[in-house]
Amino acid sequence: MSMRFQARRKRRFQRRAGITLYFGGALAALSANAWAQGEPAVAASAPASASSAVPAASAAPAAPTAAGDTANNAANTSTTPTTTLAPIVVVGTTPLLGIGTPLTQVPANVQTVHAADIQRQGRQTLTDYLATNLPSVNIADAQGNPYQMNLTYRGFTASPLLGTPQGLSVFVDGVRVNEPFGDVVNWDLLPQQAIDTIQIIPGSNPTYGFNTLGGALSITTKNGKDNPGGEAEISGGSWGRKAAQIEQGGTIGQNLDYYFTANAANDNGWAEQNESRIRQVFGKLRYTDADTTLSLSAGGADNDLHGTQTIPRSFLGNPKQPYTYPDQNQNTVGYLTLSGDHYFNDHVELSGNAYYRHFRNTNTSSNVNEDYGSVEDDGDVDTLQATNERSTVTTDSYGASLQLTLLGKLGGMENQFIAGMAVDAADSSFTQSSQDAAFTASRATIGIGDYEQQTYAKTHNTNYGIYLSDTLSLTPHWSLTLAGRYNWAEATIGDASGVQPQLDGHHTFSRFNPAVGINWNPTPALTAYATYNEGMRSPTAIELACADPAAPCSLPNDFISDPPLQPVISKTYEVGARGKIGSATTWSAAAYSTTLDNDIQFISSNGAGSSQGFFQNVGRTRRQGVELAGQTKYGPVTVTGSYSYVDATYQSSWTESSPSNSSADADGNITVKPGDHIPGIPATTVKLRLDYAATAKWRIGTNLTWRGSVYAQGDENNQDVNGRISGYLLIDMDTAYQVTKQLQVFASVTNLLDKRYASFGALGQNFFTGPNNTFNGANPVNEQFVGPGAPRGFWVGLRYAWK
């Protein structure tokens, strides 16, 4: 086999699913931790360097040739020895496409999800799938819409909600999709049908750049060569949900391939005011030859999402009712990405990308006037019941990355060296307007007069990064990884209205973040590792413009000139192991500790139920815990299970205004002390997945998810009389029957036992304590507000595939 053909095979398969197994010439995409899949587990290979993966592949037959042809070839020639080599699993350790690193040399508990796994369970949203199947992943319903969940991983959050401390970075084909204005992640904009693989990389991996405090999600989309043919799908069921999607992939000649998908969904929502309308489209065109791959992808979304907010516990007799409404988010996005890689020879590979992304969010929120009944400066009593807030964020983001990979030897030892650089820039425009309003009997707001503009700001962000990574095979059983990244960030905030010059500000942040890891592979069935790494998150524009305790602002309005904030620094230690027992069982275990210095929190000025407040560095916080997981197969039954424990605590003392907390002092303040638990993060989660192949055409799957209790926001000192929000057990089921080779019927049930539960909570004041929950602003009551979970739901659908 020619060396040029080897390079082509490397590029074509190694990053296709994030992981590739070469075994005697046969290729099979597998999971880094196979227990995360509904597939039979396969152990990692014997120790091998990054550069040894290709010769291993080339020593086998060149292609999946028919057995008869192989036998004839052997008979017609002299006795040619056949060599069966150990499998080599390769994963990606940087955002950009590259050669990848053998799993045996990756010092982290990487988890991988494939497209087939997501499709098998028929989940409505990506966050729901991740929370139900992966260790240390949970979701919380803070906004009352299934497409706008807060996702936490090891106690770190990726959320669409402005003001939520963000700690995870999310990439799609090497492009970071955390929105520059607030670092939020809009899960509804990700093209779920186009996803080929998802890798969750834990810890503060510096090569992934800003905001990778607790981990990174790296998403790779499909292409036409690996996903030929097409399928169409329709489904419907509970709450008026109707969905349709289509996808098509294929090749044009020898060098071009294409992929396209589109989907639409309408959902009335299980509650009274949480309907959703989803529209997504994605396409990709690729050119490949022996040395080069060029890919041009584009996509967009136009979504309309309504939420119910959290509701006070006194409302739980009817959990479908909203507290106030309307609350609406209209998200639109369009993006274009050009990426590619080129092999100069078998030891030198260059990859890169360039992108442009246009995002727009229009938010309309109904709010209680918390100053109702107070005496104004002129002596009048404030009798305004409510306000409507309307904000618009428009962002144009663009950037480019370049990465060089060198394979060779250092001191006689196999070595992989990676050097990369990235620049990301964004221009954002933010406007916010307010309207006086009154409540109807159903707690809807009716505007009084016109909207009046409160803020018009423009921001510019520029982030630069230079990173290095080196993996050295010290011996056949030991490997060492050294990495680091220098980050430099600039944020400029300017008043665009001409009436708020105090808004103007310019901030810069920079730091070098190192990482070191070591792997030990005593046998082909066991890998152990230890690692230390550091990460950085610079304050966002919204945090920098809302950081003055003396002048609290609303989220996301009323920006002012504020004291500077310090960047958040994360330091992570992790030890772990993974391996295989027999031919059908895999397992993994990890223990970790991540400490944040200068953590940033949104400090409410009138309790957690208030949107008024400011951002503040609160000192040190820590997330530490363990992960245990495994998968085994018994004939037609595959069992996957995991246990996660997260101890998330404050490590510094600070004061917060939380007058709705029963332990607050006369001024409404509470004192948070070291050891107090961070709200919203469950300590314990247990997950079990059963897959049963009843017949060759019929399969049945079941998920059991236990999530422990959490503290409510506003109860940062863990002393409120309401106590924790209870844990819960959910049981979901899914099934599919292959009617013909092309036609499949599928169905799913969520919350099979119709369990009433809540995944999120906050302390606040209930202003609706009159008859039939009518407005009683003069006598609000302190209560614990919760985000109720959805009741039992059932859906059925048809999927037709063609080649």
Automatic annotation (TrEMBL):
Keywords: Cell outer membrane, Membrane, Receptor, Signal, TonB box, Transmembrane, Transmembrane beta strand, Transport. SUPFAM superfamilies: Porins. Residues 104-216 form the TonB-dependent receptor plug domain. Pfam families: Plug (PF07715), TonB_dep_Rec_b-barrel (PF00593). InterPro entries: Beta-barrel_TonB, Beta-barrel_TonB_sf, Plug_dom, Plug_dom_sf, TonB-dep_rcpt-like. It comes from the Bacteria. PROSITE patterns: TONB_DEPENDENT_REC_3. Coiled coil: none annotated. Residues 1-36 form the signal peptide. GO terms for cellular component: cell outer membrane. GO terms for molecular function: siderophore uptake transmembrane transporter activity. CDD domains: ligand_gated_channel. It is found in: Cell outer membrane. GO terms for biological process: siderophore transmembrane transport. It is a multi-pass membrane protein. Its main location: membrane. Residues 286-752 form the TonB-dependent receptor-like beta-barrel domain. Belongs to the TonB-dependent receptor family. This is Outer membrane receptor proteins, mostly Fe transport. It comes from Paraburkholderia susongensis.
